[in-house]
Write the structure tokens for this entry.
Amino acid sequence: MKPTTDCVLIVDDEPAVRKMLGVMLSQAGIANESAGNAQAALDVLPSRRFSAVISDLRMPGLSGLELLAEVQRKYPELVFLVATGVDDVRVGVHAMRQGADDYLVKPFQLDMVLASLERAFQKKALQQELENYRRHLEEMIAKRTQQLQTAIAQLEHSYSATLEALGSAIDLRDGPTAGHSRRVFWYSIKIAQAIGGLEKEVRNLGMGAWLHDIGKLATPDGILLKPGALTPQEREVMERHVQTGYDLVKSIPFLADAAEIILAHHERWDGSGYPRGLKAEEIPLGARIFAVADSFDAMTSDRPYRSAIPFEAARDEIQRGAGKLFDRTVVNVFLTIAVNEWVAIREEAASVQINTFANSGGLSFASVDDANAVREASIQLHHFADAHDPGGASEKTPCQPKPV
């Protein structure tokens, strides 16, 4: 069977061997040229359209193995067969381990030469098919990764827009505390950033702070907007808002982890809070951070039943509550933040949207596990493809020159 080939380059330092193999290939209808040494072969390779090299291993100057290395580096698409004597079979096997596609034993037999070329071309075609598949798969993975990243960005925007709407609804419902949810969101984030090492918790803290009073949407106006003190019965109804808020968001996937902060945001360090009377570190860290931010904003904001107090006085009140109402560690960090920073945050909070922080990379609402999985698949693909990768003057006969 005649292999499909453009031209074969025969490389051997013995003219008789070159001539004999050339005649055999010509009789089989295979175009060929020959070179008397490895350097001559390297000189002629760029000028002709070769698809295979048959080279002796033992030649003066560059050896057949050295020629193999050069051909692999410069012309990896070429089939490379090595020719060896009967006593050099192990050398031929060694050459195949170095990347040769097959080896021939001298003296040549036409059917063996043609069969070896056919096997080598089939192997090279499979390797090329694999390479094309790998490139196509990498392009597809890159495209899908980009699509996933775009989808995540859109999801982030959708989530932040949803939170904006919910926060606005809470503020509209509870007019006297308008802007409270926005301010405690930023206050809580500021404290968490000052504590440090809470990058993974910031997401849930931010959403919990933003929606902490969502349960008040179910509180009657007569109680929620009452300008005076609440009766014991009214206070009991008011306190239900934490459980109501928790029940509202716990089944929403991207808010589920923030639900615990909503439920625990009125717990106090000494166990005097509600609804579960949690104490000290039984209270989630996010809720302990939020408790400081929430109380600080409540004290520095006007309410129907009292006027706001100065920031400095509020700081003193928070400090006095350390170890009783608040986590002392959180309070100590809170006190390291200057009053002018709190003032600036309060002024900016009214106009800064929640997605500003999300888009800055500080807060992520959507999971990127799928994107990481795609990247890992791309890495594994590279490993898979790499594991299957291949590998005197010339006497001219009718071979086609390479197009310029």
Q: What stands out?
A: Residues 110-173 form the longest helix (64 residues).
